[in-house]
Design a protein that fits this description.
heterodimer; A: alpha/beta; eleven-stranded mixed sheet; eight-stranded parallel sheet; 11 helices; B: alpha/beta; Rossmann fold; six-stranded mixed sheet; four-stranded antiparallel sheet; binds adenosine-5'-triphosphate; binds magnesium ion
Chain lengths: 469, 251
């Protein structure tokens, strides 16, 4: 139906060239109703899902770009040259020999295990997480945990997922949530039954295939009453995108007394627009914690949020953003208090390197009829070079004098005396800078699982190498 | 050749000439003291030797065991074996003492070689015990919120962990209470050995009761204007600097 086209997609630095003929399914370039139908058809979806997609597509068409605060750079996205669906079945997209040397070297220096390198570089379509996963899968099944992809989730468990799908983040939330709703594929759908507390974090890795690393993944996690889950996505290795637009939607539902911790570490190549909508709903006494680390990309816009819907619910966002030359990290958090005695905590740290720019955008809402709500917001920015940039836009709407809010923001620079002091101990300038940056984000990095924090430190070293003289 | 050798060193900051034809030799195995009025250039000397970028060397030479220091980066000089205990130690927020010292040691190891954590901590704790530092300090951020005395102890701790060939201690005694002065001096004395030269910059003879110098030098207007044995310090304590200034003016 849609002809494979010869139009070149944007292939800037960091991109692989890939021949589209290797793909079994290809929706071609540009977005239309036909493309949406094609995707739904390939996935063999039920009618209600197709309707959902089509409605989303028409909302996407009508909705303006977020203009009131977003960077003008968004206007540079050309929706007509993007491929909205490509799947190669189980075929790898390239061979190890085709992977550029500098990328191989980066994998090596980050200490990414051999097996993962091949997957990350697209040499293997399936990440083989070996015995660990099959054991875990058995355990999960015994507990009644569902851990599947978005397509399977909606197809095989509609009675569980349909109820919440698109409810925490309505299709019309913003232009990009509408886009995702029209063309989503990949992502994880997870259901944790009441009272089940998962000791091990679930990783996107465990059931990953090329599609999961797609541009428009959709994730929905439902933690039933009193259950607990930690989910991790991404890794510190640079993700070499063949596409320049990544737009995911992640919805979390924490029912009464449930706890969800969602950890993201992403490192995008310089040409990617990373426009992600992440939001959670927390019922009575539930806790949701977003830990988010954003590195790379041309422009990232991401503001994880929690709607504190039940009494005593708790929401937290801990985020680290690293913006290097030519990159803009526009990140933040949204805390919507909708019940009394709810608390929220936001700690955001950004590092701007070279001509990198990071912005913090926060939203805290506590309506006047609520009592004993608390918010704490801390955002700290570190500027490495004299042309690095940062800006902060906190929007705090608090009513009612039974509620309290605390807001602190700081901007710091590394002083010449600090660098001299570290150099006098033997560190060269780049090592001194990395150590300083590591110190700056240290209290947040401690919140990451061990293996991530080690990788993050190495990654900071790599990023800082280019930042000095 | 086993000396820290300074010949006719002149240096300026901005338009201001601070060091003027300074000559000074510190042989390995010896402890020397430099005393001198405020603003005479003592800290400047230590920073110039350490390669601080704010100071321009306008003449002369400085070498360590025959290796020319001037023109090298501060970290190269440090790794060659020059350690400077700062008069005003600098805060490095979020970096624990343990991680800071580890990073410093690691910068001296060949690429790919790693520190053995168990041995590192064993040595670190031993030295902290010796300096009367609580072990819980290892996780405190470098110099952040430290008292004056704690900062100075932390400088000595770093010095003893890094095994330098030459040490310059810039007013390590100021800010120390009487007990701390004894403990820190003890720490410095333990660093004395035939393969190491130590230079202490101080205003007080008191320190030299604990760390007995082989030589005492007086600095004035960017030069060493007088050198002598430890009795010179006692004389200064007694008479102040005016008589030396007068002698210099007369000369
Ligand atoms: N970075 C600088 N910028 C401007 N002036 C400087 C700088 N560093 C040193 N000076 C000046 O050089 C002179 C010598 O200063 P220095 O700190 O070396 O003195 P000192 O002998 O260590 O004094 P003190 O005993 O008070 O520590 C002073 O007049 C000081 O103001
Ligand atoms: Mg001084």
């Amino acid at each position: 139906m849609i002809k494979p086209s010869n139009i070149e997609i944007d292939r800037e630095k960091g991109n692989f060239h890939y021949p589209t003929s290797k793909y079994a399914f290809d929706a071609g370039v540009g977005l239309s109703e036909d493309v949406v139908k094609y995707i739904s058809g390939v996935k063999n979806e039920q009618d209600w899902i197709l309707d959902f997609r089509l409605k989303a597509h028409s909302i996407f068409e009508k909705k303006p770009m977020p203009t009131h605060w977003a960077s003008r750079d968004l206007e540079n996205i050309d929706f007509d040259v993007i491929r909205y669906y490509l799947a190669q079945g189980q075929q790898p997209s390239r061979t190890w020999d085709e992977v550029p040397d500098d990328i191989k070297k980066t994998f090596e220096r980050l200490g990414i295990p051999e097996q993962e390198r091949k997957f990350l570089a697209g040499v293997e379509a399936q990440f083989d997480s070996e015995a660990a996963y099959s054991r875990m899968k058995e355990d999960l099944e015994k507990e009644g945990v569902i851990f599947v992809g978005s397509t399977e989730g909606l197809r095989d468990y509609p009675e569980i997922f349909k109820k919440w799908f698109g409810k925490v983040i309505p299709t019309s939330d913003n232009k990009f949530s509408a886009l995702n709703s029209a063309v989503f594929s990949g992502g994880s759908f997870i259901y944790v039954p009441p009272g089940v507390k998962l000791a091990q974090p679930l990783q996107a890795y465990f059931r990953i295939n090329a599609e999961n690393f797609g541009q428009f993944e959709r994730t929905l996690i439902i933690a039933d009453e009193g259950s607990e889950i930690t989910y991790m996505e991404g890794c510190t290795a640079p993700k070499f995108e063949t596409s320049t637009l990544h737009s995911a939607v992640v919805e979390l539902v924490a029912l009464k007394g449930a706890k969800i911790q969602y950890i993201t570490v992403q490192n995008w190549s310089n040409n990617v627009f990373n426009l992600v909508t992440k939001r959670a709903m927390a019922e009575e006494e539930a806790e949701v914690r977003w830990i988010d680390c954003n590195i790379g990309s041309r422009l990232t816009m991401k503001y994880p949020g929690v709607i504190l819907k039940g009494r005593k619910a708790r929401g937290e966002v801990l985020s680290i953003a690293l913006a290097n030359d030519g990159q803009h990290q526009d990140t933040g958090a949204k805390m919507v208090h909708a019940a009394s005695e709810t608390t929220s905590n936001v700690i955001a740290k950004s590092v701007s390197i070279g001509q990198g720019r990071s912005s913090y955008r926060g939203l805290v809402q506590i309506p006047g009829h609520l009592e004993h709500c608390k918010n704490n917001t801390e955002c700290d920015a570190l500027l490495i070079n004299s042309d690095s940039q940062t800006d902060t836009y906190p929007a705090i709407a608090i009513q009612g004098n039974e509620n309290s809010v605390q807001h602190e923001a700081s901007v710091s620079k590394v002083s010449a005396e600090q660098i001299f002091y570290m150099q006098q101990r033997g560190l060269n300038q780049a090592e001194a800078m990395s150590l300083y940056v590591n110190g700056f984000v240290n209290d947040l990095i401690r919140e990451f699982p061990m293996e991530y924090s080690v990788e993050l430190k190495r990654l900071i070293d790599l990023e800082m190498e280019g930042s000095v003289g | 050749m086993s000396t820290l050798q300074i010949d006719n060193l002149s240096a300026s900051v901005g338009k201001e000439q601070i060091l003027n034809n300074l000559n000074f030799t510190l042989p390995k195995g010896e402890v020397h003291a430099i005393m001198g009025p405020n603003g005479s250039g003592k800290s400047t000397l230590s920073k110039v030797l350490a390669g601080h970028p704010d100071y321009q060397v306008t003449g002369g030479n400085a070498s360590m065991d025959g290796t020319e220091l001037l023109g090298l980066n501060p970290d190269e000089i440090a790794r060659l074996g020059l350690f400077l205990a700062f008069q005003y130690p600098v805060e490095v927020p979020g970096v624990s003492i343990a991680n800071f010292i580890r990073a410093a040691i690691k910068s001296r190891l060949p690429e790919g070689e790693n520190i053995k954590a168990v041995e590192f901590y064993k040595e670190l704790y031993l030295k902290m015990d010796g300096l009367g530092m609580d072990r819980s300090f290892t996780s405190r951020s470098m110099n952040e919120g430290f008292s004056g005395g704690e900062k100075k102890r932390c400088e000595i701790l770093q010095m003893s962990m890094l095994n330098p060939k030459y040490c310059i201690l810039d007013e390590t005694d100021s800010g120390l209470d009487i007990d701390a002065l004894r403990v820190v001096s003890e720490g410095i004395n333990q660093m004395k050995n035939p393969d190491r030269g130590i230079l202490v910059i101080t205003h007080y003879q008191r320190l030299l009761d604990y760390i007995v110098p082989d030589k005492v030098h007086v600095m004035w207007e960017g030069r060493i204007v007088r050198s002598g044995d430890k009795t010179l310090a006692l004389e200064l304590e007694d008479k102040g600097y005016d008589w030396i200034k007068e002698e210099v003016a007369a000369a």
